[in-house]
Write a structure and sequence with these properties.
The chain is an alpha+beta fold and about 220 residues long. The N and C termini lie far apart (about 35 Å). A four-stranded mixed β-sheet has the order 2-1-3-4, with helices on one face. The chain has two domains: about 70 residues, Glutaredoxin (3-Layer(aba) Sandwich), CATH 3.40.30.10; about 120 residues, Glutathione S-transferase Yfyf (Class Pi), Chain A, domain 2. Strand 1, helix 1 and strand 2 form a beta-alpha-beta unit. The longest helix is centred in the middle third of the chain and has 37 residues. It contains eight helices and four strands; from the N terminus they run E-H-E-H-E-E-H-H-H-H-H-H. The structure holds glutathione. The site of glutathione (GSH) has 12 residues, from helix 1 and helix 3. Glutathione binds next to helix 1 and helix 3. This is Glutathione S-transferase family protein.
């Protein structure tokens, strides 16, 4: 079985887990806290980042490379769309969430509300949290805009763009950075994802010492 080195609030690991669940690829979770800088983990991934997937002699690193690998090797449930234009649009949105949303929302929230609280024992910087939440608001506006025009984020079919977005948003939501009020299209889309058996195990998981807000795993939020 594939082993996935991850921790519960790593959005890139959530993306890989969700994609593997949809493709029915069984995965064994291995807890890895990248900030602990374990030598054995550095030997596996010189970048020292989660997620890493390993099976026998094969080591896969980077969520985009990992998702591409399973898209190429597992026919079940294609996740990138059928034509080159569909795939380009899906990849644009995957990069949007992996890079832009992560830099503007998820990474500052992880730093302020997870890392400082659990590890460096500092108070969060309220200004940084406010800025991340304001940025999240802008991203939800963009989701509403897309979902007013499309059934799923990159087009008519559910795919990796939805998975990448749900991975980032679920972590930001866990950390209290998402205000769903006034975002009906995004809320309906996220509620549909939350009800999927392939996504529910992610929502059931908790980061030790850091409980999520009460609405976090509710279908009606
Ligand atoms: N591009 C990478 C990003 C992975 C990433 O940034 N992982 C974070 C955890 S969410 C990490 O390991 N950070 C520790 C570090 O960069 O030293 C991917 O998509 O897998």
């Amino acid at each position: 079985m594939w082993r996935l080195f991850q921790y519960p609030l790593c959005p890139f690991s959530r993306k890989v887990r969700f994609a593997c669940a949809v493709k029915a690829v069984p995965v064994e979770l291995v807890l890895e806290k990248p900030w602990e800088r374990r030598d054995e983990f550095a030997a596996l991934n010189p970048a020292g980042q989660t997620p890493v997937m390993q099976k026998g002699e094969i080591t896969l690193i980077d969520s985009a490379a990992i998702c591409d690998y399973f898209e190429e090797t597992v026919d079940r449930v294609p996740l990138l769309g059928s034509g080159p234009e569909d795939r380009a649009e899906a990849r644009r949105l995957i990069a949007w969430f992996d890079q832009k949303f992560y830099a503007e929302v998820t990474a500052p929230l992880l730093s302020e509300r997870m890392y400082k609280r659990l590890y460096s024992k500092q108070a969060p910087d309220a200004g940084a949290v406010r800025t991340a939440s304001r940025n999240a608001e802008g991203h939800l506006d963009y989701l509403d805009f897309l979902l007013d025009r499309r059934r799923w984020l990159s087009g008519p079919a559910f795919g990796l763009a939805d998975i990448a977005a749900a991975a980032q948003i679920s972590v930001a939501d866990y950390l209290g950075g998402i205000d769903w009020d006034g975002h009906e299209p995004a809320r309906i889309w996220y509620s549909a994802l939350k009800s999927r058996p392939t996504f529910r195990p992610l929502l059931a998981e908790r980061m030790e010492g850091l409980p999520p807000p009460s609405h976090y795993d509710k279908l009606d939020f």
